[in-house]
Amino acid sequence: MTSLTLPLASPxxxxxxxxxxxxxxxxxVAGGTLSAMAAVALGRAALGLAxxxxxxxxxxxALHLTTVLPALPLGLYLLLARKGGPRHRMLGKLWVALMLVxxxxxxxxxxxxxxxxxxxxxxxxLTVIGLWRAVATARSGRIATxxxxxxxxxxxxLIGAGAFAFAPARIMGLWLFG
Length: 178
What we know:
The protein contains 6 helices and no strands. It is mainly α and about 180 residues long. The chain has one domain (about 20-175). The model has no long low-confidence stretch (mean pLDDT about 90).
């Protein structure tokens, strides 16, 4: 009788461009939660189940929401999906454009602080500088730095700053919690 020996299965290798399993989980939980909260808030507003938010008529607020809301799930997809191909590059350029417009439009949102900038406006230069750095490092082939910068932009610029959008006095908070 001959014995069969099976080769030891090696653990699946992670693509060098990909996130670690722990970071993937963190991005998925944070991005998924905020995206779901935004979807529910928008649904409540669209169905007339949320109080009116007069500030939505301001151009800067409308532009900000129009760019931030699609950037949330798109960024989540880009961080979790396969990287480096033409689809990633095309959608990445779209995400960068959305984030740039979102950051710059935030400069016009000052009604909550009596016309003045508030601490949350610190995210504007951080986001613009981060976007520039992310694009520059990707173009120069420094993928590890690109990846780190993009994760920081997503978790800090979208999730961190986005969490403030659900405060009771803010539009998304009003729409979600009524």
